[in-house]
Amino acid sequence: MDPAILEKLREYADRRIGDFHRQRRQLLNELCLDEVLPVSFCLFSAQSTIKPVVKLIDEFLASYLSQYEEELFGAFLRDLAVCTVETTCIGHRSTEPGVDLELVSNGIHYIISIKSGPNWGNSSQQDKLEEDLKNAVARVKQSKRGANVQPVLGICYGKTRTGYLRGYLKVVGQNFWYLISGNRDLYTDIIEPIGYRAKEHNDTFVAEKGKVMNRFTKQFIERFCDESGMIDWRRLIEFNSGNFDLDKFLP
After folding, report:
1. 56 near 149, Cβ under 8 Å?
2. Of 132, 154, 181, which residue sits at a domain end?
């Protein structure tokens, strides 16, 4: 790969990973306690009776944040992939439903849907992806008669071997980044800007998380602990599931 192109990709990755960390902090600081309390308190109470409140809050917060951090990082990787094909001038962002980018290489028109990691989607979401890729292939063939079109599920990280699945080609990790760049080493070359100043970002995040945990711990104790400091699980479950109004609908 041209060193100038690689440098542009590194600059883009550095800028966008900074946005990712800022969005993490923003999400953290906009949370309220009610949002992070788990739904399954009935199960949680059995295993958490003797845990200090601060440990429970840490677990609640970690569980809540992990889902959104995965979404934010997935968006970062998808944008980086699109930037890669646009910078190398071999492709572009797609407007097709369910498709992220398109590129042409060695006479093949690739239609690619991108997922950040290998563990994505339930069966209905996978069915929808299969349908979206089939429809996109049909539209491309209709507009470009004779085109050799290959639908692809591109996964940004993982070690799964390349293979066909549900009518599309599944390309993972190093192979995916090679497909969209022609550079076998791109998957490691882009690590440097992603890790650049990571400690600084994480130290700031940990400090902000500590303040949020302290605030949530105080609120939790005030609302859901008795005078001795024990968690009142009945009060918690009433908060989480108490909604009796069926009497208004019964004869």
Report:
1. no
2. 181
Are 136 and 151 members of one domain? yes
Cα–Cα distance, 128 to 131 (Å, whole number): 5
What residues make up the domain containing 176?
A: 89-181
Domains: count for the chain:
2
Sequence length of the chain is: 251
Residue 55: both structure tokens together: 């440990």
The answer to whether the pTM exceeds 0.85 is no
**Does 94 share its domain with 176?**
yes
> What is the radius of gyration, based on Cα positions, of the chain?
24
Encode the chain (251 residues) as per-residue pLDDT tens digits: 788 888 888 888 888 888 888 999 999 999 999 998 876 665 555 555 567 889 889 988 998 898 888 888 888 888 999 999 998 878 999 999 999 999 999 999 999 999 988 888 889 999 999 999 999 999 999 988 778 999 999 999 999 999 998 889 999 999 999 999 999 999 888 877 677 667 788 888 999 999 999 999 999 999 999 998 888 888 888 888 888 899 999 99
* 12 plus 64 within the same structural domain: yes
